[in-house]
Amino acid sequence: MEYAVTLLIDESDALRLRSAFISAGCPSAYTENPPHISLATFEKVSKARLIKAVETFAAKTPPLTVSFLSLGIFPGVKNVVFLAPVVTKSLLETHESFHAILQSEKIRSATFYLPGKWVPHCTITKEDDIETSVKTMARIHSQPIFTQFRLSRVQIFKLNPAVTSMGAFELSGHQGF
User: How confident is the model over 97-131, as pLDDT tens digits?
Assistant: First the structure.
């Protein structure tokens, strides 16, 4: 993947998450980028068109609140442990709106981020074996993070060769976009 577009958890809420992750023994969580929910990733994309799409999305999209009420795991040789938000109509509409804007710019994201295939999540750890992942889930389970979090910015990250922010934009739209 070359780029990712994410909804960022507000800084005060992000600090709460980081503190909980450290308390749970996951100090490496979010050393590269802040807590977020990814909207899409891209292998190859025009940087200028992607920035235009994200700016358009930010201008049309109001901030939203998500509730993390469960944990999940994406299985594989290297597992991903994540917080799972309650999938609300507002969250799905926000995601679908972003992909409609991408489509208008003739940009296509990775398949598993397309509407109907997307699993919204906030990564806690990645690339751990199953035993370590289960222990992480047990430690996170007792943390006071199963509550609401505000998402008010959208950010573009360049992923290779290192994670680098390409810009963040405030969600400034109004309900009923």
Answer: 999 999 999 999 999 999 999 999 998 888 788 89
Rounded to the nearest angstrom, the gap between the alpha carbon of residue 125 and the centroid of all alpha carbons in its chain is 13
Compute CA distances 165 → 51, 66, 108, 155, 157, whole Å: 12, 23, 20, 7, 5
Residues in Cβ contact with 6 at an 8 Å cutoff, skipping those fewer than 6 apart: 33, 36, 37, 38, 39, 154, 155, 157
Structure confidence by residue, pLDDT tens digits, 83-97: 999 999 999 999 999
Which of 18, 40, 140, 159 is CA-nearest to residue 84? 140
Please tell me the distance from the alpha carbon of residue 177 to that of residue 173, in angstroms, as a whole number.
7
